[in-house]
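Posting this for the archive.
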Amino acid sequence: MIPGGGQPDMQQLLQQAQKMQQDLATAQEELARAEVDGQAGGGLVKATVTGSGELRALVIDPKAVDPEDTETLADLVVAAVQAANENAQALQQEKLGPLAPGLGGGGSIPGLPF
């Protein structure tokens, strides 16, 4: 509520909205640059993704490679990428979560994971 029952100051609301938009853009840029890792098989397969979920690197220990069992290797790759993406989502929540209340709360912004 506005003290004294007056109308909201539109200029102030506009400035707050612009600041929130700048904060969101900054957080998204930080996420795009940040890298997080995930691993599987006790570290035999490691995946690196950006904070926005883009796969950047995949490292496979030679011990994980068995020409007779490529299915296990594929499972380890999938698990490592999933772990990295879970870490990226946690980073997204950390960076973007504080901005959510000012943007209308959780789940109300299309394309954002919160």
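The helical segments are 10-33, 70-96. The beta strands are 35-40, 45-50, 55-60.
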